[in-house]
Design brief:
heterodimer; A: alpha/beta; nine-stranded mixed beta sheet; six-stranded parallel beta sheet; 12 helices; 17 strands; globular; B: alpha/beta; eight-stranded mixed beta sheet; 11 helices; 18 strands
Chain lengths: ~500, ~350
């Protein structure tokens, strides 16, 4: 594979915020699908608006729907106008639509790939240089192996004088076995350095801020270990139900939908050792080490570390809402979990014996994603606890990912008055008060990173394997010894059964 | 709210705006605190933005125009804006202060507020403007000074207080003088130059055009650079060429002026680079287009166009192609907003470019 980018540095890039992206042909498989319409095409428009696309850029959309180039452009215009985070500029949108093309056909049809190659050759000629190829798989997961195999079979896995990359959407597998099988298929056609497994959560500014918070501040690292931290909670709560996603969701459930990827990624960022440099493999090496340190649950004893739940009818925002089984397209005999709580242990020097509590669910009291780090109590308490105050509480550090992104540190403070009475108060930092710029959508960042070949925010094969290594035993435990799915009222804090995971003295934070 | 806020004799709060004639800096500062306390007392979840202090020194008669420009900055609005409006003959201070929230925060989101202060001062105050402004800035936040109507004396007085000076070399009739002033300011503070920011998309495009490994060697073969610019944006053109010179190790040299254009020749090792800066009538300040040619016959032309920059390339074999490099115009409000944003960043390439531009302009 070509590594021409490294031959001679470009002296003009220093000081520029937007680094150049090699001229690229981006191919979106599943270009008429929901993700493409809602996220990918609007993200590409916003990149065009900001001048962040490559100097020479072409886009090919492909899917089974029969349509002409112009019909595809019409659909793209509609999707961008509807879902873009900014109102499109007609002139920029017009220029972008001009470079969009469409190839209809089935993903297992060799002629689709031939037409793609022909178009690409024409683009190379127009640009008078070989364009990089970036294949974005935004299809149902069942097509991933098919497309990868066809690309390899058609010789589209490499291109003389240019780079070829493939972006694969989540879910990457549905079990450890299927993830490994998919990895094998992908790595038959492509080298790992060409593969960009996307988890859009890592493209969020506030998730990346976890790294900045930990490794750009001297004051927290000395206490970031088992000596000072009592326990950690990671919460990803949603107030909405499954909505129109029931078809997908019922085959997935909360564990696969959020824990296997987003929440374990947060845990990895929170627990990893400091990387030597902010470079893709140096960061990913540290993340993999942490994930591999998480003790895999034993399937036969899964109930000791995991609780699953399902929402029942309840009241949200003053309105009566359906339970999961009453939602449209949900089978009446469904045992899919809409809530999961876990207690995990990271078996390494830094984190031994620190419980990590993870919980996620739909139709909970409110929407919030946060990491709460509770520090150990002070070793000796000099203050009276029976003085009519709340008293000294353990310090908590809350990293709020959404909404109201920020950092809160609870500390003990004296209540004004003649007596020495203490209660917890919050030191609060809100990103919105310090950074007035609008954050780009996660997909904007990730699409550019993939085109530039920067894999820092993408998941490596061994990382995928390690993540499934934690989740797979839980799925097997639930499958083999099915305990009843706990129930919780919509709009509540989740099932009471989740309390059994907590060690003595620990408690779930209010959602 | 006015009743809650009127805590001291003589204070005047009306509709959340405090005003006082013949005031003093400590009274203005106290009023700012009262505005926030008053907002909290009414139970409103307001959090003041804490990004930077922007001190704008303006002619009083043109302050409305400057305030309008700042309002259009949108999401890059500084957190505390202190406008020092200079009025001929004035010897006392008048002031008003207000706390303005962003419109319609999302449900559940915190309302972020910006603080505005306007102090009417006289020319007599400029030499010691720091003694008036110092109590009004939020301590520990970066402080930026911007004086779009001159008032260099006031800027100089604030250099010990401010970390950043916002200038627009392109707004001065004499480009050489503007670059010399920016060079002088850069000795004491970090300079954010709007003329430099107007050239950012051009610098990004040129950098991209020569980024493919096969194209990079052509950077060492550049034989001519032509820049077309707004008649008042000579400084922007000089900064662009200064950037190329400083990045590519060209030896800067003075340019000759002829009929409004500037011409010259820079030494690039064994090669020479012909420089042509030409005026071009256009609506907005900044660059209109540029052409970079190499000794081997390669050329790249970028010009303003619909939906981005129109690019034209000729390869060494004579093959020609045209395309649009996509990107929306930021407009002048966008440039000012970008200036505010850049005040919190550091671009290491501006000062070398400024130094080279200064030599070419001399």
């Amino acid at each position: 594979m070509a590594t021409l980018e490294h031959e001679q540095p470009n002296p003009l890039v220093e000081g520029l915020e937007r680094l150049p992206v090699h001229p690229t042909m981006l191919v979106i498989f599943g270009a008429t699908g929901d993700l493409s319409n809602r996220k990918l095409l609007p993200a590409i428009y916003n990149l065009a608006h900001e001048g962040a696309l490559p100097e020479r850029f072409y886009l090919i959309g492909t899917s089974r729907s029969e349509m002409t180039h112009d019909e595809f452009r019409g659909r793209a215009r509609e999707a961008i106008t509807r879902y873009s985070r900014r109102r499109p500029d007609d002139r920029v949108l017009g220029a972008l639509l001009e470079v969009m093309h469409y190839v209809p056909g089935s993903f297992d049809d060799a002629s689709v790939y031939e037409r793609m190659a022909e178009l690409g050759a024409g683009f190379d000629e127009q640009a008078a240089l070989p364009l990089n190829r970036c294949y974005y798989l935004s299809t149902a997961p069942a097509f991933f192996p098919v497309i990868v195999g066809m690309l390899g079979g058609a010789g589209l896995d490499s291109h003389e004088g240019a780079e070829v990359r493939i972006v694969i959407e989540k879910p990457f597998g549905t079990t450890l076995e299927s993830a490994r099988a998919l990895n094998r298929e992908v790595l038959c056609a492509f080298e790992e350095s060409q593969v960009f497994r996307i988890d859009h959560y890592l493209g969020k500014e506030t998730v990346q801020n976890v790294l900045a918070f930990r490794f750009a501040n001297e004051m927290f690292e000395p206490v970031w270990n088992r000596n000072y931290i009592d326990y950690v909670q990671i919460t990803a709560a949603e107030d909405i139900g499954v909505g129109t996603r029931a078809g997908y969701y019922d085959t997935s459930g909360a564990l696969r939908d959020l824990v296997q990827n987003h929440m374990l990624q947060l845990l990895a960022l929170l627990c990893m050792e400091p990387p030597v440099a902010f470079e893709a493999d140096k960061i990913r090496n540290e993340k993999v080490k942490v994930v591999q340190s998480i003790r895999p649950p034993v399937p036969e004893r899964v109930s000791e570390v995991a609780v699953r739940g399902r929402y029942e009818p309840g009241v949200v925002g003053g309105e009566q809402v359906n339970g999961y089984l009453e939602e449209e397209a949900v089978p009446q005999d469904s045992r899919t979990e809409t809530y999961v709580a876990l207690r995990l242990a990271v078996d390494n020097w830094r984190w031994a014996d620190v419980p990590f509590y993870l919980r996620t669910g739909k139709r909970l009291a409110r929407k919030v994603t946060e990491i709460a780090v509770t520090l150990k109590p002070v070793p000796h308490l000099a203050f009276q606890q029976t003085d009519g105050s709340v008293g000294v509480q353990q310090n908590q550090l809350i990293l709020t990912v959404q909404p109201n992104e920020g950092v809160t540190l609870s500390i003990g403070a004296k209540i004004p008055g003649s007596r020495m009475r203490i209660r917890p108060v919050n030191m609060e930092f809100l990103y919105g008060t310090a950074f007035l710029s609008q954050s780009p959508e996660a997909y904007e960042r990730l699409i550019v990173d993939a085109m530039r070949g920067d894999a820092t925010l993408f998941t490596r094969d061994d990382e995928v394997d390690a993540l499934w290594g934690i989740v797979d035993p839980i799925l097997k435990g639930w499958q083999n010894a099915p305990e009843p799915v706990a129930r919780y009222a919509a709009g509540s804090q989740g099932p009471a059964e989740a309390d059994r995971l907590l060690a003595e003295g620990h408690r779930w934070r209010a959602i | 709210m006015a009743g809650d806020l009127a805590t001291r004799e003589g204070d005047a709060f009306l509709d959340g705006v405090w005003r006082e004639e013949g005031t003093t800096p400590p009274r203005i500062e106290a009023a700012m605190r009262d505005l926030l306390n008053g907002r909290h007392a009414t139970g409103e979840a307001t959090v003041p933005a804490r990004v930077l202090n922007l001190i704008a020194i303006v002619d009083r008669e043109w302050r409305g125009e400057v305030e309008n420009r700042l309002e259009r900055v949108g999401r890059y609005h500084p957190s505390r804006t202190i406008v020092c409006a200079v009025e001929e003959g004035r010897t006392t201070l008048d002031a008003w202060a207000a706390l303005t929230e962003e419109d319609d925060p999302a449900p559940g989101a915190i309302a972020v507020a910006h603080e505005q202060v306007e102090v009417t001062v006289g020319p007599v105050h400029l030499a010691h403007l720091d003694s008036i402004v110092d109590p009004l800035v939020v301590t520990d936040l970066p402080t930026v000074v911007w004086a779009p109507h001159g008032h260099e004396e006031g800027v100089d007085a604030l250099l010990a207080l401010a970390q950043v000076v916002l200038v627009d070399s392109g707004a001065e009739p004499d480009g050489a003088e503007a670059l010399a002033r920016a060079t002088q300011l850069a000795q004491s503070a970090y300079v954010v130059d709007l003329a430099w920011l107007r050239s950012t998309p051009w610098r990004e495009r040129v950098s991209s055009a020569f980024d493919p490994p096969r194209a990079r060697p052509a950077l060492r073969e550049i034989s001519a650079v032509t820049v077309k610019h707004h008649p008042d944006s000579g400084a922007a053109a000089l900064l662009f060429v200064g950037w190329l010179a400083s990045r590519l190790d060209w030896e800067p040299a003075g340019l000759a002026r002829q009929d409004g254009a500037q011409h010259g020749c820079l030494s690039a090792g064994k090669n020479a680079v012909a420089i042509h800066l030409e005026r071009h009538e256009m609506q907005v300040p900044g660059l209109y287009g540029l052409t970079i040619e190499t000794a081997s016959g390669v050329s790249l032309t970028l010009e303003r166009g619909q939906g981005g920059l129109r690019a034209h390339r000729r390869t060494r074999r004579g093959q020609e192609s045209e395309w649009t490099v996509m990107g929306a115009s930021r407009g002048e409000a966008g440039i000012l907003g970008e200036g505010v944003r850049q005040a919190l960043l550091r671009d290491p390439t501006y000062r070398p470019a400024l130094a080279a531009a200064g030599v070419m302009a001399a």
